[in-house]
Amino acid sequence: MMHRLYSLFALFLLLWTLASCQHRDHTGYSKSEGLLQYVDPMIGADFHGHVFVGTSTPFGMVQVGPNNIHKGWDWCSGYHYSDSIVTGFSHLHLSGTGGTDLGDVLVMPYTGEIRSERGEQEDISNGYASFYTHDQEVARPEYYSLWLKSYGIKAELTSSDRVGFHRYTFPKGEQARVIVDLKQGAGDRALDACIKQTDEYTIEGYRYSKGWSTHKVFFTMKCNKPLKEFAVFDDNVRKDGKELQSPAVKGVMSFGANAGEVMFKIGLSSVSCANAAEHIRLEISGWDFAKAVKENSRKWNEELSKVVIETKSESYKRVFYTSFYHTMIDPSLYCDYNGEFRAGNTDSVWVAKGWKNYTVLSLWDTYRALHPLMTIIQQEKVDDLINTMLSIFDQQGKLPIWHLQGWETNLMPGCSAIPVVADAYLKGFRGFDGERAFHAVKTSATNPKQRQMTYILERGYIPGDKVPEGTSLAMEYAMDDWGIAEMAKRMGKADDYEYFRKRSQYYKTYFDKSINFIRPKMDDGSWRTPYDPARAVHGLRGDYCEGNGWQYTFFAPQDPCGLIELFGGDDAFTQKLDDFFVTETDMGPEASKDITGLIGQYAHGNEPSHHIAYMYAYAGQQWKTAEKVRFIMDQFYTDKPDGIIGNEDCGQMSAWYMMSSFGFYPVNPAQGVYVFGSPHFDKATINLPGGKTFVIEAVNNSMENIYIQSIELNGKEYPKSCITHQDVVSGGTLKFVMGSKPNKDFGTARENRPI
Q: How far are the Cα atoms of 61, 87, 231, 233, 447 from residue 237, in angstroms, in the given order?
């Protein structure tokens, strides 16, 4: 009897242990709960995804995570899944970009003798870098952990909005040391740096660097244990004293042979060390690491709960909620607790009063889907983002192009802040001054210092033999001008409306009817000859930015109906679209390596193609849109490390998926009209402000049933192949009935097509 009782007790104990283990990873730390359990930051860390891996808060200033030795383009975020050497944990990272920068304030624990070199490539025997493996790595939005094989150290990270929280567990008997390396970044160059010890628990300093941007980062670093020794180095040469200013500065903290668990809180600021210290006091006052992780988890779950999806596929859930997570890394907070932030171009301190300032504005990418998505599910942040852009206008005399850490990089064609500002105004957001906003968009679109704007002002087109990427630049300006015209119309500014409406049609200047292609026009008015619309040339040397003539032939999102007319009607237009998706002509040896995710000439890995699959609906063939969109969602988005087909681009790739998975997409990003594609889930509930919900149901949805048979909106038959923003944010229920064969009558009638 006792034996049986013992056996039953042992079985109970085993089952209890197994149940407990289901909620813990190999580090013994509790796993994510709620919707956060479906987020995997490793999705997109391989191939060309370039996503950030580490821990942050939604839209937070700090992104604290691991850095590899920078080995080129695929290390734009500072980390790539293929790597196995970590040089430390830095506090600012880009996510999904095609350019590299940041990696500021690198911190690395190690054991043994004091040294300041990081080591290079596979030979790290004399440096502070360490080998690691993915099976001893945990990456979650609220918590990151890595086992440093070279030292037997367990590194753990979490964060608040402006503070990185580190916990390092050192092996017994080894000298425990932590280096702060202000020379190293993610592919940038330190111009100046300073580090000093202010008391036995505190280090502070700053890093001033030049890469893609030129920016300053101030930090204060507090430890839970007193430093036994602090050594400073100037480019690996040890200096006397406890303070050093140099572009190659490093500081090494020592904690003795039995330090055990050592924790650090590192506050950041673009303004001062004092502000950075205040962030620590305000955001993480104590030393309860688990509490900080829990609070970070709460923030993420609160944001993720804005959309609840229902699907039988666990993989779909991981793809969706990881996409949602990626849309909330950037734009990132760029102001201190008191509203202060540094304008990098002038090195002056500004104050955001009554709003929050943001940075990492990858607008050429994100104006297409991320910002329209935010007007639905991040409404409370839209006014702050517009005020951020208007502040940048005040600082530099034009709206931002690609703004990074207070610095204008001027990268990418067009002025893509304009459609974002216009979209917000046209959708009724009024937490900013409308007249001030119109002044900013109009002035930016007529500023002779804006890239090649004088050609637009004087000639109405940009000559291809005078300006690299001139054709795509002019077509982006035409998209921008549509938004200005619509703002002017809404405001009763008739002359401005007519002027910018005319400019929004300038894209037609480049349409060569003899070949039915957009074609670069030369200084003398002739066409570029010879001309191969499939050829793409990277890097300010060709006619198009990160694309080719095939892709830009369909780049008139502000006027799809006008583009159809240029082709001669629906049949010719849809035939051209059909050819676009099947033509596999090589783009040439000089094409951008991030033109990826190809379906014929369609390149989902690059933004100029993102709206094109939806253009069938304008010609009355919505069912073809459904086919293409479902294929892209199923083939180009997976839950594996290489699960993003190209650069994630600060949330744009993920926003495309999110919008498309709902069953609609903003072809014209400033119009407030969403074109139907093919919903990916059985049900999606969008939780809107004020307790409202917008519910999307897909009846009979499956891998085979990809075609819309009919639609109901709030219980009534809905024949249109698009829906307005106002219908969505007013709340209600959108019901798709799906089938395995196209209903070719759906959306065919002209009055039911998008306009």
A: 33, 19, 10, 5, 50
